[in-house]
Amino acid sequence: MSDAVDNAVSYTVVVPTTGRDNLFTLLHTLAHGRGPAPTEVLVVDDRPTSHAPEPLPLPELGLPVRRLVSGGRGPAAARNVGWRAATTDWVAFLDDDVLPSQDWPARLVDDLVGLDADVAASVARLVVPLPGDRRPTDDERDTLALTEARWITADMAYRRHTLIEVGGFDERFPRAYREDADLALRVRRAGRRIVQGERVTTHPPKSGGFLASVRRQRGNADNALMRAKHGAGWRAEAGEGPGRLGRHALATVAGVSALVALAARASKAATLAGGLWVGLTTEFAVRRIVPGPRTLGEMARMLVTSAMIPPTACAHRLMGEWRVRRGRAVLFDRDDTLIEDVPYLSDPEKVRPMPKAAEAVALLREAGVPVGVVSNQSGIARGYITPEQLRAVTHRVDELLGPFQTWQLCPHGPDDGCPCRKPRPTMVLRAAEELGVDIRRCVVIGDIGSDVEAALTAGAKAILVPTPRTLPHEIELARRYAVVAPDLPTAARIALGST
Fold it and tell me: 246: buried, middle or exposed (CB in 10 Å: 19+, 13-18, 0-12)?
């Protein structure tokens, strides 16, 4: 590969890890692979702090490797820690259980060089090696399904500025499930493309034990968050089938009804409900047994777990829906709340965070609360700011204070009669919808009366943090109908207690 191509793409590799043995094989491949080496490899230790008193040992490979810590908060949080510490244009995510090819660095650069500006990400082709002398087990077929998924972050490279723009991974997804599809859907809705690369990465098949398929049903809780954020049609948009939750619910109701009928000595009802349960459970088990190796052990596992999966899946989905309903969010005004108010700010270099703004946002993120911004920007309508300049300022705010999960900006003037300009509630409502949060569980923090009025009209709560520019009657309004806080960290703590 020529030096011109080598210099065309700089990239950082981010590897979230729980300390699996394959990590060292992966790092060795990156250090000795053919092609341009990464600027840096960021290994994010996601072991719970209580279980990882000693630093994760990393080998000396002649490659810039830095260890970061995410405290066991899951792969979404670990990847966020990683890419926020990166300095390159591209960030390549690799899981710690994959096996890149020896020429992976060269193939990655080939995939990235020359991509159009609207391309936000490149995803690798995954290969799952299966035994050639028998049919795959249930666990192996589950791993094989990754090869059909659209946006698997086991090997995926993103432009860093795109991650800033959309707020990175949603840390409300606590496991390696749906967090990558959620990010990709948000990226595509922002008008960016995701392309298929030519590089190939091997993902060894998983083996999770007798009840692995039952434990995987925890993902149904994440499906509830996907529905809340992306609507009922999210599966089709992500290229997935309808799933089996409806049949699982029917089987669960049938099983419970049979038990209740037996307890009530209603034999006919018990027979009907029990027959339905047996039929649905048998159909599910056969569907799983037929493509497998059909050994006695595997068939026994499929029979037992096919009875356990429906109620487990339903229970996790119900818990997920409950968490979604209990979910909360905090939305900030921008000027004189998050950053100093510079009239018609168009220069990113002039962005200055307000005192303690970083502390307040960090308090909310540490509590797992998504944060967003709702801001009037009439400079667009007045011709004082271009959309490109506004985006540059937005990116700078994200760089200084960390990415916000949603930015709702009104580009209209006061006399345009738009529905979104505060004190109208539209931006607050849109932010809640985008975050998948009940508007009644949202708090808006701002510095003037229109922030308070927009929140209350939308049905959210409001906290006013006055500045020297806040008018006395606005403070009085907030004292009467909302909350007044002396500073942003106090406002953040009040928001955590009130949502």
Answer: exposed
What percentage of the chain has pLDDT greater than the value 90?
86
Q: Which one from 110, 111, 335, 447 is the annotated catalytic residue?
A: 335
In the predicted model, what is the mean pLDDT of residues 36-41? 94
Residue 264 buriedness (CB in 10 A; 0-12 / 13-18 / 19+)? exposed
The verdict on domain 3-207 having CATH code 3.20.20.450 is no
Q: Which CATH superfamily is domain 329-498 in?
A: HAD superfamily/HAD-like (3.40.50.1000)
Q: Which of 171-175, 286-290, 315-319, 425-429 has the lowest mean pLDDT?
A: 171-175
Residue 438 known to be catalytic: no
φ, ψ (nearest 5 deg) of residue 371: -125, 150
What residue ranges do the domains of the chain occupy? 3-207, 209-326, 329-498
| Predicted local distance difference test score (pLDDT) of residue 292 | 96
Strand-pair category, 90-94 with 155-159: antiparallel
DSSP E strand boundaries for 239-362? 329-332
Task: Please check whether the two domains, 3-207 and 329-498, share a CATH topology.
Answer: no
Q: One of 110, 180, 333, 398 is an active-site residue; which one?
A: 333
Q: Is 95 a catalytic residue?
A: no
CA distances from 262 to 257, 275, 277 (A): 8, 13, 14
Residue 371: per-residue pLDDT? 96
CA distance 165 to 375: 16
pLDDT-based confidence at 6, cuts 50/70/90? very low
Could you tell me the pTM of the whole model?
0.88
